[in-house]
Amino acid sequence: xxxxxxxALGLLALLTTPALAAPTRDFPTEAAPVLADRFPQVPVAFxxxxxxxxxxxxxxxxxxxxxxxxxxxxATKGPHPLVLYIHGGGWMAxxxxxxxxxxxxxxxxxxxxxEGFTVASLExxxxxxxxxxxxxxxxxxxxxxxxxxxxxxxxxPARVALWGGSAGGHLTALTAxxxxxxxxxxxxxxxxxxxxxxxxxxxxxxxxxxxxxDGNSAGARLLGCDGPCSADKLRSVSxxxxxxxxxxxxxxxHGEEDKTVPVAQSxxxxxxxxxxxxxxxxxxxxxxxxxxxxxTPAETHAASMQALNATFDFFHxxxxxxxxxxxxx
Length: 329
Known about the structure:
By secondary structure, the chain is α/β, with parallel strands linked by helices. Helices cover about 30% and strands about 20% of the residues. It is built from nine helices and nine strands. Strands 1-2-3-5-4-6-7-8-9 form a nine-stranded mixed beta sheet, sandwiched between helices. Helix 2 (about 105-115) links the parallel strand 4 and strand 5 (about 120).
């Protein structure tokens, strides 16, 4: 009985001691609800002094998650030309940090930034989230955001180029070719146009994609067709429908054995661009499937490097940035 006394006295003391006052908690507020992402933006360091900001929100539409960019900025003061990369994935998958067989895509984008470009990688609404032309509108919104924050990310808004593969190649071509088209994007009337575009195995004519083994089911999902898509719908999403003499220079690269996006798509795009008098270069890589996948790992690597080097050189040329070593290309 006496052994329990100290514990009982301790409990009595706890019950009779006045409670300590809780600290006063105080945080800033604003006059209206705050939807902006205030999580600290800490840049990631890459070789060559490049700094990259992850998941920068460029657009926040009601009913959708915030949409983001990764932005890579060179070490030098600038302003630098801007390259916007648009990922592939059949318009229904993918993210800002992948491309084909490249093992480390952020490292590739950072390497381009180290050569004198601000580089951004776009997250857009996928076909399961929104139907076309939402994806084009997202690309335009990202360009507006980047031009509007030119000082923050050392961007020259008068020198801008686009780059994408597969579905991203399609969106790259369409974004470059529909500048100021308010029928597809009501906000586009005051937009500035881009100065160059690179498409890797991109889609140029959706009607031609109906001959693929799956009947272009990914495209039908993008358009929201119930059954076969109408000719008008297919034309509305096809870059060839918008090609004219005002288009910027293009570089098209495609594997000749592509089973996902037939090489005929780039042939169509090349022919239409040439017919309109647009400067265009096309590279067709033999024995290579979609994503530049070759018959062996060595072929995949060689094709990927051929495409990448041609792409970097194109940006140096059309955006007027001296190539490494000052040789110019």
